[in-house]
Fold this protein.
Amino acid sequence: MERRPGNAPRLAKPVDGIPAGPLGRLREEAAGCRRCPLWRAATQTVFGAGPAKARLMLVGEQPGSEEDLQGTPFVGPAGRLLRELLAEAGIDPARIYMTNTVKHFKFEQRGKRRVHSRASAGEQAACRPWLAAELDRLKPAVVVALGAMAA
């Protein structure tokens, strides 16, 4: 691992190719992503959201049902709780860039409910270029991985 000034580690490049362009264009390109089969059942791609100059980035595992329906990360029950707790801690959620490692909701249909199902290693790898591009564009000072898949 290469070292940068101040002894901060430089992370290895997570993918061979990182998509180019500003966040808005990346969001549009990701909307048409067909790198894995998850897009078929999902309502839409759930790309990251937040300020392009955010110093803090939260990375979750994958969107849930409400995120899939709204197209925005962290808007379901867990996301609402997270935003509430951030606000209680004095951190403005509007100043954070929030995203997920996987950009489509993977689920099993059980009656009328869509129940979360863990993305496979291949599905996670298919989304890695999008996350790498988000990290590359934002260059946040702090990245917080929420969950094992995100870590």
